[in-house]
């Protein structure tokens, strides 16, 4: 029998509650935290659709909850926000904390195949284990109606998870996502260590390559990208993804935002539009 998540904090916000939990993840082999924003219910029996948020390099489940301001729109739309952590923690693997862009805080939402990093299975955690934990422990959450979004590394995670599971998620959006990781330094570092040297294995986690295999999108992909983002041209490569979407006839709204950078100031400026984008898809489901 799996242990129930333990609530470790609760804060009221816009009529609902941010509640943070800890549980033992059998997928990752360690204790993990996640945060849920529960909007105020309109009736005791109301079940909320879910928007999963995947955060970027160095982040935890707390960054989005504390900095984005997404709860205002989520409260109005009646959508629960679910923010998992970005990697396993506390396993004390040699080298796990040597750099900010690999290891702890940098799970890249994939299933590692190299033996040393075998616990780094954030893909299975996000797609399989966490929804099961939510479904079994929170009757007010409707895990059958879910959407996914994220920032930077988390934008990469949101796009790849969505493209590999079109039947599970009603919509996807991203802020400044790493869209073509097989062709950027962050992705190459992570993939070579987690997945090994065979670059054909990397393609499974590259949105620009995955989009070519997809069809029948129920809603457009939404991406906001700051034009003053210092990572735009060497790490994020949104125009590679845009070209791939055109080639695959996939619906994409890529909005280049003048003057904006890679920060949560950028995210908080445009987050309401993303919440409404997901609300429309979730309520049509």
From TrEMBL:
SUPFAM superfamilies: alpha/beta-Hydrolases
EC number of this enzyme: 3.1.2.12
Subcellular location: Cytoplasm
Family membership: Belongs to the esterase D family.
Chain's role: Serine hydrolase involved in the detoxification of formaldehyde.
GO biological process, one term: formaldehyde catabolic process
Catalytic activity: S-formylglutathione + H2O = formate + glutathione + H(+)
Keyword list, A-Z: Cytoplasm, Hydrolase, Serine esterase
Species lineage: Eukaryota, Viridiplantae, Streptophyta, Embryophyta, Tracheophyta
Segment forming the signal sequence: none
Gene Ontology molecular function, alphabetical: carboxylic ester hydrolase activity; S-formylglutathione hydrolase activity
Active site: 152 (charge relay system), 229 (charge relay system), 262 (charge relay system)
Keyword Cytoplasm tagged: yes
InterPro entries in the cross-refs: AB_hydrolase_fold (IPR029058), Esterase-like (IPR000801), S-formylglutathione_hydrol (IPR014186)
UniProt protein name: S-formylglutathione hydrolase
A GO term from the CC aspect: cytosol
Keyword Transmembrane helix: no
């Amino acid at each position: 029998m799996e242990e129930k998540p333990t609530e470790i904090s609760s804060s009221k916000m816009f009529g609902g509650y941010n509640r943070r939990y800890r549980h033992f993840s059998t997928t990752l082999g360690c204790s993990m935290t996640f945060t849920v924003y529960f909007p105020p219910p309109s009736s005791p029996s109301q079940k909320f659709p879910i928007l999963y948020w995947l955060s970027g390099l160095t982040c935890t489940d707390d960054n989005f909850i504390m900095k984005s301001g997404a709860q205002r729109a989520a409260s109005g739309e009646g959508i629960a926000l679910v923010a998992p952590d970005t990697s396993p923690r506390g396993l004390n693997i040699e080298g796990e904390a040597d750099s900010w862009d690999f290891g702890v805080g940098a799970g890249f939402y994939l299933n590692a195949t190299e033996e040393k990093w075998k616990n780094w299975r954030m893909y299975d955690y996000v797609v399989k284990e966490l929804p099961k934990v939510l479904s079994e422990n929170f009757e007010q959450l409707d895990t059958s109606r879910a959407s996914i979004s994220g920032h930077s590394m988390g934008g990469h995670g949101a796009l790849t998870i969505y493209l590999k599971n079109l039947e599970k998620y009603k919509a996807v959006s991203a802020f400044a996502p790493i869209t073509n990781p097989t062709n950027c330094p962050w992705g190459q570092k992570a993939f070579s260590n987690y997945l090994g040297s065979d670059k054909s294995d990397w393609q499974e986690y590259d949105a620009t390559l995955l989009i070519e295999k997809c069809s029948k999108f129920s809603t457009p992909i939404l991406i906001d990208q700051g034009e003053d983002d210092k990572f735009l041209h060497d790490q994020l490569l949104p125009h590679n993804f845009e070209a791939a979407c055109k080639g695959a006839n996939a619906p994409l709204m890529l909005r280049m935002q003048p003057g904006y950078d890679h920060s949560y100031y950028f995210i908080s400026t445009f987050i309401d539009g993303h919440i409404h984008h997901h609300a429309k898809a979730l309520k049509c489901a």
